[in-house]
Amino acid sequence: xxxxxxxxxxxxxxxxxxxxxxxxxxxxxxxxxxxxxxxxxxxxxxxxxxxxxxxxxxxxxxxxxxxxxxxxxxxxxxxxxxxxxxxxxxxxxxxxxxxxxxxxxxxxxxxxxxxxxxxxxxxxxxxxxxxxxxxxxxxxxxxxxxxxxxxxxxxxxxxxxxxxxxxxxxxxxxxxxxxxxxxxxxxxxxxxxxxxxxxxxxxxxxxxxxxxxxxxxxxxxxxxxxxxxxxxxxxxxxxxxxxxxxxxxxxxxxxxxxxxxxxxxxxxxxxxxxxxxxxxxxxxxxxxxxxxxxxxxxxxxxxxxxxxxxxxxxxxxxxxxxxxxxxxxxxxxxxxxxxxxxxxxxxxxxxxxxxxxxxxxxxxxxxxxxxxxxxxxxxxxxxxxxxxxxxxxxxxxxxxxxxxxxxxxxxxxxxxxxxxxxxxxxxxxxxxxxxxxxxxxxxxxxxxxxxxxxxxxxxxxxxxxxxxxxxxxxxxxxxxxxxxxxxxxxxxxxxxxxxxxxxxxxxxxxxxxxxxxxxxxxxxxxxxxxxxxxxxxxxxxxxxxxxxxxxxxxxxxxxxxxxxxxxxxxxxxxxx
Length: 576
Ligand code: GLC
Ligand code: CA
Prior knowledge:
Blueprint: H1 7-10, E1 41-44, H2 60-65, H3 67-73, E2 77-80, E3 84-85, E4 97-101, H4 108-120, E5 124-129, H5 139-146, E6 158-160, E7 180-183, E8 188-191, H6 206-221, E9 226-229, H7 252-256, H8 262-272, E10 280-284, H9 290-297, E11 306-308, H10 311-314, H11 324-337, E12 345-346, H12 356-360, H13 368-381, E13 385-389, H14 410-421, H15 426-436, H16 473-478, H17 483-496, H18 498-502, E14 504-508, E15 515-522, E16 525-532, E17 538-539, E18 550-554, E19 564-565, E20 570-574
Parallel strand pairs: 1-2, 1-13, 2-5, 5-9, 9-10, 10-11, 12-13
Antiparallel strand pairs: 3-4, 6-8, 7-8, 14-15, 15-16, 16-20, 17-19, 18-20
Helix pairs in contact: 13-17, 14-15
Bound molecules: alpha-D-glucopyranose (GLC) and calcium ion.
């Protein structure tokens, strides 16, 4: 089973010593201010956001109809998951035409209207750039597979069968976990790190890199504001395909990530494209060491603006479970290492992970609301650009399908077939999926309490979470104490307090197993964040003097009790 689950589940944690630097204040005049550092990014999964024509699939017109809602959140950037033409083997991460809109999502005119609608509201648009692979239905691949001498042959990685079987390579989504697919047409194997319908592009071919530059320019010239670069750490490959040691797939980023010439390729993109526009670029994945991450994002290298590492989300896969001390250690380590140089993204959920509140909080009725607000407080008060996934502002939860027929994700479905074919423990696999599947976060957005949560009047492509009757935007909009109202307040708090963006982070009461407490400091302004990560009362060290502290926001509506925190209580104080 493990072999067929996606990377996000497989990555092992990097061990690293924590270094607690002395508290030193940061100053605005020495800060390299950038709009993309001060941004709050809202990720929209178009397929599940809003359906405008009742075919059961979210679309661009649907997003357009919700622009005022998006604006009301206060977010400043929208990141759209792929909307290009695609046969949808992996929900748009298999692109058959990079310059077209997927039929079910709408037309280029809809796209232009969406971009204008966002810009009119002073919201920027970042698109997904999926160029580690294309769809096998892309014209390049059709040409490439047609003959060994076709001019597009070298757009992909081919291995002639007369050389024998290629060196084993692990595939995230393949039924047999095999990244080489035999193609009888030319008696050769092609490489696919993801599904068979996602052949890997050959970045070692300069023509491929020029094609990608041109695709980026096409969208940037339309006025978009940047790219989220999908699986980007994998694009560069050692095409001699050396043998990897047994078990390498358990530490996949070390073997697949940061291949030869990756930095040359990014520098080339920067020179040819990025540097000509005022845009943001963010890499999915940050290699397997802190140094790898710095090499991607340190400003003086002129490569990318930021990257997101997986250590934060992957902590929930730690065998035997993780503790709050582990979580603090991970976030503190990354913050300290990037406090002087480089910039990171911060997130706790996305379309590849379970719902934030189910994964890191507590989605039982008594604590869902509080723990969701607590996690929102965390994301909005850490350094690094926060990426917030649509629906998390409502405290949407995992759906936890128990029947394989309800799943839609290629990773889940192929993983299931693998377990069945190999006689594995199907029951265990289903239990894992229920908690970990990416479909948990892909259920339709819960707009209101009408049928199908107001997402569609047709049959939704994936089931709606039945809790929409109580968890939905319309009800939360009316309630000043809802998750939604809290998210809006938290976003505006971050936007008006540069200290929350750039301020120095210092852990307080580091060994407290229940409370995550830290200060942020900038130009003499100091804030203190207290977060009880447990369902029990907790105490934060009495060493903190709260006598002059002013509460800026809290997730309970009843008075605060000094150093005692109630279950999942979150408080942000201004200390001076
Ligand atoms: C990235 C995407 C994921 C996709 C994969 C292949 O990890 O976030 O959704 O399945 O790349 O493109
Ligand atoms: Ca539709």
